[in-house]
Amino acid sequence: MENNNSKENINIEEQKDTEVVTEEVIEVNEEDQQGEKVEEAYTGKSAKISTKYDFKTMKYFHVYNNVHRRKRNIQYLVLALISLALTGYIVYDSITKTTAKNEEITISMFFIPAIMVLFAIYIIYQAFTIEASLDRRLRTLFMKQKVSELFFEVREDKIIITPVLKPEDTFSYDWIQVTSIAEIPQYYFFYSGKSPMFIIEKNPNAIIEGSYETIEEIIKEQIAKKPYQRIDKEIIKKPITFVHPDFDINDVEFVESEVVEDETSEEVIDEVKTTEEKTENDSQN
After folding, report:
1. Which candidate, 257, 191, 198, places its Cα nearest to that of 229?
2. What is the model's pTM?
3. 200-238 burial, b if ≥16 CB within 10 A, otherwise e?
4. Which of 114, 214, 226, 260 has the most CB atoms less than 10 A away?
5. Average of pLDDT values for 97-106?
6. Alpha helix positions (H), 128-246
7. Which range has highest mean pLDDT (110-119, 171-180, 255-264)?
8. What is the C-alpha separation between 177 and 254, in angstroms, rounded?
9. What's phi and psi for 70, nearest 5 deg?
């Protein structure tokens, strides 16, 4: 009997000890959670601004990316000159060899050179019509799809991006992921390597929280640390007159900001991911 009583006393004491330990663990966990909440509270400089990926934004981006970053118009002119020089050499060589053999010069000898000349003329035309080509493509795109709008919370440690109509898909980039920055009078363009990441409009009226001066200050701090290009002049020549049609929010998809085929080449401009794909992928990661 004494043994049983002693065992019961021991069990009761162990149970009490367990309850005390459990309460202590709960208190510690609550303190940890409070500590995490305190750590997550950001106290540095920050401001929030919105940017619409509309006709204007995408035109400025593609003109900058093709003409000023890639120098694509210069590439095409060089290609045209090479084509013309090669054509001249082929014609000269053919005529020289034919006359040396006392053979008759025929029209068929100029068939291939003629094609090369036409190709050079086409390339030169494309070099001088990049903007017009983009206008046609963008008009076609935005007549079918509505514009997406993003909120950018610009902080000293990162950029938090929130789709206006899908706030649950919020994602972020640390500043270390941004490897270069470009600036024109209307926008900031942010790149990771050769791939564009996002665009922020330089518009004080688009501020949601904080001040536009804070946005500028934080970005300029990052500019001092990274490769940077600034263009102060106007980069587009044709005025923007396109008016976006009204869409039912349930009937159309978000505009794919990058799906604009550049007619000056045979490839599709695919550096910028679609807004929906980017938000889904980054929120999953």
Report:
1. 191
2. 0.71
3. bbbeeebbeebeeebbeebbeebbeeeeeeeeeeebbee
4. 260
5. 80
6. 130-142, 212-223
7. 171-180
8. 26
9. -85, -20
